[in-house]
Design goal:
By secondary structure, the chain is of the alpha/beta class. The protein is 43% helix and 13% strand. The chain has an eight-stranded mixed sheet with strand order 3-10-9-8-7-4-5-6, sandwiched between helices.
């Protein structure tokens, strides 16, 4: 109550309700008028005096200070406060221009891309692991750790990527970060100067482009075809680029893999040009037609590849843990720059992940999710033409958590996306820059991993209605 009274008196003083030098009501009278104890009023007055709004004079009473600048009268509380125009940095402007209006990616709406089946997360096993780590390593988890990350987790990751992805490294080359995007941002700030060119996939993951632009990089979009990024075209167009950022095992969003000859050409260019390859392997574990393709880093003899992995996409997005495998020459610079930013990733989740990997629980979970996602993709491919009466044809993908859906010729994919959104379904339209992969046909991108058969069927029914509405509008026009 005394704080409420203090705020009311302070606002009245600022708004000019009490003139400079004016005496405030006596504490006894004010307490009687408000029906509160005098102690409450005294506490409010003490705050006014302590913060410089009022003074206690020897002649008696509490007075408003005389030198308080006169502020304009405040608007009534019901009137909305004006929103001042904010001058943003060039980095912030670059991010906003690239990303556009913010979506709502946190609701599991069909067919949002990049969502894992978190209802299948082994919660009970994870809970037992959490309890075990707190019992055994509480003091270690509550203190600082190395800027590179918790050593048991780095050791477990080094072992995992060697056996699962063919990555060649020691634990000293592993750096724990707050998700893959954080890792790429660290590398961009460490290795790029404003004006440096960076090859990026077209199409590619838009938030990664935004962060590269925010550090002043000049993006060189390189078309992706059925064999991945066209490295030979990139060398011809921008041979002096400083970095290449790509998803060679599973292009985001198309799902194609970089062919061997292009992998070798990429490494040859990086070695000759003193450039860096950032290999974002965000979804390399989920391959359905064969064993996972070894990482490009496994072919790198010149130390030019920075390998990026993440637990956020393959386990659960709320974990916000990823990792880098960096060449030995970057280890010490990363330590220094990490100390100047966020020090390190939260230790408790690192400790639990270390146990999860070393015990084999992670590998078992990945195998189970690979089978589940294969089934869910098959369900989507089967149901799409049947439920939509042939208006949507879904092409199966060899890997990943999303597929391409083809619309009838001439249908506006952007309009379908908007119409579907109005029906509670999220589908991303492809742009004209992806014609090489979609063969010029209008197409949509559909995520399927997080949705069971009934959810998928209902969403396809709504999407079919959206397509029919758009086609009907086209006929009327």
């Amino acid at each position: 109550m005394y704080r409420q009274l203090y705020v009311a008196l302070r606002d009245a003083i600022i708004a000019g309700g009490f003139a400079p030098g004016a005496r405030l009501p006596s504490t006894r009278a004010l307490a009687d008028d408000l029906g509160v104890s005098r102690t409450t009023v005294l506490q409010a007055f003490d705050l006014l005096v302590g913060e410089g709004y009022a003074v206690v004079r020897s002649t008696g009473g509490t007075h408003v200070v005389r030198n308080l600048p006169r502020a304009p009268r405040q608007k009534p509380p019901t009137a909305p406060a004006p929103v001042p125009e904010c001058r943003l940095s060039r980095a912030a402007q670059a991010i906003l221009e690239e990303l556009g209006p913010p979506p709502d990616p946190f609701r599991p709406v069909p067919f949002t891309t990049g969502l894992a089946a978190i209802e299948e997360f082994p919660v009970q096993l994870w809970s037992r692991t959490v309890a075990r780590q707190w019992q055994r390593h509480a003091s270690a988890m509550l203190g600082f750790t190395s800027p590179y990350g918790y050593m048991p987790l780095r050791e477990a990751i080094a072992q995992y990527v060697m056996t699962a992805r063919g990555v060649r490294c020691t634990p000293d080359q592993v750096v724990i970060v707050n998700g893959a995007q954080h890792g790429v941002e660290m590398m961009a700030r460490l290795l790029l100067d404003p004006g440096d060119q960076v090859w990026v996939e077209d199409p590619g993951y838009v938030p990664m482009r935004a962060l590269l632009r925010s550090v002043g990089a000049v993006l060189v979009p390189v078309q992706v075809d059925d064999h991945g990024m066209n490295v030979h075209d990139a060398v011809r167009r921008a041979p002096n680029a400083r970095m290449a950022l790509l998803t060679p095992s599973y292009n985001a969003p198309l799902g194609v893999a970089l062919s061997l000859d292009r992998r070798l050409a990429l490494l040859d260019w990086a070695a000759r040009s003193d450039a860096w390859v950032v290999e974002d392997d965000w979804n390399g574990e989920f391959r359905y037609d064969a064993e996972a393709i070894p990482a490009v880093q496994s072919l790198d003899d010149a130390g030019r590849v920075i390998y990026v992995g993440s637990f956020s996409k393959i386990l659960a997005p709320g974990l916000r843990v990823g990792y880098l495998v960096v060449p030995p020459g970057l280890v010490e610079p990363i330590r220094q720059t990490r100390r100047a930013s966020d020090m390190h990733t939260a230790v408790p989740v690192q400790a639990v992940l270390a146990d999860f990997l070393s015990s084999g629980s992670f590998a078992r979970h990945i195998r189970r999710m690979r089978d589940l996602y294969r089934q869910r993709q098959e369900t989507l491919v089967e149901l799409a033409p049947r439920v939509t009466c042939g208006l949507l044809e879904v092409a199966p993908a060899a890997a990943g958590m999303q597929v391409v859906g083809y619309l009838p010729a001439g249908v506006d994919a952007d309009a379908v996306s908007r119409a579907a959104s109005a029906r509670g379904v999220v589908v991303a339209p492809f742009t004209t820059g992806t014609a090489a992969v979609t063969h010029g046909r209008p197409a949509l991108l559909l995520g399927y991993a997080a949705f069971d058969r009934e959810t998928t069927r209902a969403a396809l029914d709504a999407l079919g209605d959206a397509i029919r509405d758009v086609m009907g509008e086209g006929e009327r026009r």
